[in-house]
Amino acid sequence: MPIPSALVIRYFQLLVNKQFSEAERELERLKQKIHKTEWNRGYFRALYGMLLARRANNNDSYAFFSKLDLNDVEALQSYRREFLGHVKSGLHGDFDRGFFSAWADCMRVLCRIDVANNPKANSAVPEKAKPEALSAEKSQVTMEKFLGGKS
Q: Tens of pLDDT along 92-101?
């Protein structure tokens, strides 16, 4: 049985949104549905590693997820091509091909997710520093305006 793509896509979306407890539930559902092969074991380990890396501190300079710019579609596509090259390589075993296949799928999904409009995915930029938040604060009614005073 192949790995259910709907569950995997949902898992990646949950990772981007930093909904870790729900992502863990999806991962457990995936674990129950896949056959125990070396390729699937590599694929699953990559998914689990993504969860650990995404949940960890973003200042980890060795974690691939912390280096990713989720808004740079060209870079994500380049990473996907690189991972697919490893998947097709005869030098890697089934475990490794499954592992790289999970990363290639992740890059494919990340290219299609609109991260720019997702505040949870871009937690490096505080909400108050975003232009939309600043303009919204200026347009709000103050107590002086409400009571008819000058502002």
A: 889 999 999 9
